Amino acid sequence: MESFGKNFLKHSSPQNMKPTPHQRGETQPPLEMPYQGDLMYLPSVQTMTMPRIDLEAAMTYRMSQRKYDFKPISREALAYALYYTQGVKRTIEHKATFRTVPSAGARHAFETYLYINKVDGIDSGLYRYIASKHALVLLNVNVDAKTMKEACLGQRMVEDASVTFFWVADVQRMTYRYGERGYRYLFLDAGHIGQNLYLIAEQLQLGTCAIGAFDDDALNNALGIDIDRMFVAYAAPLGVVLQNNK
To answer: What pTM was estimated for this model as a whole?
Structure first.
């Protein structure tokens, strides 16, 4: 009996693909999920003065950090990390966005959800990054750190970090062009995003740690996402590393 994984690879291979919505001439999904509520605009990265770091050094010294001091990071640091993980550089109207990370076919099918714990000038709660506006929208002020930690299988770093990123796949944005094979590309794209956050954390002298272990149902419920079209693919805290971290 073939494993689920092998079956997935088999059925998402090019020779088993059916015509995609794109090939059938259907209208493509929006480039970004709609939002409700007031926007909280973030500082522009073009106006910031951030520490400089050699790329080779960033790749050499970056590492997963799992212990965080319960201290805030700046609003500028958060804005910088958001822009360089999902920021929009250019848009071809209604067709594609070009961002600070690569994506299959420029589909950029991820929405960034954030549990903000301690960031200067921003109340704690659940937010979504509206990449096209470089802004945040508040989703739920009543979500607490314990809930998010438990949804991530009790990993304390989610409770102690300044902010935790949750990258949520909007499946239709990818499968519109690539069909079932698009699921493969979603996970590849998530890796690109996560690596950028590692390099940014090293530059800003902060810590991060990629998270793939979480309770899917609990996390989907905590984020309030539409599970018929979306799922959490990846997560990562960002914060001040605890000194004498061992």
So the answer is: 0.95
